[in-house]
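User: Hi! I'm working on a homework problem where we have to compare a predicted structure to a textbook description. Could you give me the structure for the chain below?
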Amino acid sequence: MPEFGEFFKRQKAIVAPAADMQPSTPTPALDQPAIQVVEIGIIKPLFDELALLNKHVDLLVKDLLKSRTLVDQNVQMSDSIGYLVNYQERKFVFLSSTTAFTLALSNGATYPVEANVWFNASFPRGTILTADGQSDAAPLMVLIRCTDEPMISTPNPVSQIVNGLPISATNPEINIANFQAMILLGQGFNASTGKVVAAADMAGQVFFPSTNPKNILIESIRLTYTNANQAAQLQYITAADANISGAGSANMTIENLLLGGAASAAGATANYNGGIVAAEGSPLDLVNIQNSNTIEALSEGLMLFLPKLTAGGIAVYVPTTAAGSWAMTVRWSEF
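Assistant: Happy to help. Predicted C-alpha cells:
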C-alpha cells in the first residue's frame, strides 16, 4: 500500500501552514483609554462666569434698545461764535432757533435754517457750526438737542456724509432726491427764453460771476427748435460771451422753482441772442435737436458743478435758420 502512504504525505504538505502565514500579534487599536472623572466643583466656577457674562450682555443689549433722556443746551451763535458738535453720547444732534439764519460749517458748507423748525445737525463730531453773517454783537440764541430719537425736521438736502464729511464744494454727492428737497427749500431755479421766433444762429448762456457765494449744480439744459434738425454745441464758459450779451441781446426769465421763493442769490446773468456763429469756452458736447422736438442736452445722470466764488457757466450755440421757434431752459440748484 505504498501509494496511500505517499498520498497522505502529499496531503500533509498541502495543509501545513507556511511560516509566513502565522497569525499576527494582537494590536491595541481598539483599546479604549481610561475615562477621567472631573469633579463638579472644578467646572462649577466656569458655569458661574458664563452666567454672569450672559447677564452683562443682556444689559448691554437692553441699553442699546432703550432711548436715553434727551440733553438740551442753549448756545449763542454768530459769524465767529460757534458750537462744537458733541453728541453727548446720543445718536442725533438737532438745533432750532426762533430766527431763520444760514448755518455755516467749518468745512465751508452752508445750509438754510428755518425759524422754529428742527434742523438735523448730525454732522461729524468736532465740526464747528456758526451763524453766517450774524453780528458778533448780537448773536443768536440756538437750542441744541442731543437725542436718541429723530426730531421732525425740514428736509436737509445735503445731510448725507461722504468720506466722513458733509457734502461741500470739494466733497460733492447729489442725487435726484436731493434736488427735489432743494426745490422744497427754495434753492432750485429755472432760467428760460420762453418761445422765441428764431433768427439765424441762436445762442444762449447762463453765467455765474466770481462773487457768487453759492455752489451751483446745473441739472438740466432743455432745447427746442421747430424748423429743421440742428446740432447744438454745449460749451463750458469761464467768462460771459460778449457776443451773446451784446447788441440785440434779451434776458431769460429766472424763477425760483418754489412758488413765492426768494430770488437767486448767485448773481447769475442769463441771456440769448441771434447771429452768433463763433462759440466761446470749452466744448462739452454736441447734441442733435430733431425737428419740432425738445431734447435734454445733459446726458442722464450728468450734472455740472460750479464751486462758489468761481466764475463759470454754460453756453449753447444752435445754427438755426431765420424760421421756426427756438427755446432754451436751464435749471440749477444753489447751496
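For your comparison, note the following. The radius of gyration is 40 Å. Helices lie at 2-15, 40-65, 176-184, 242-245. Good luck with the assignment!
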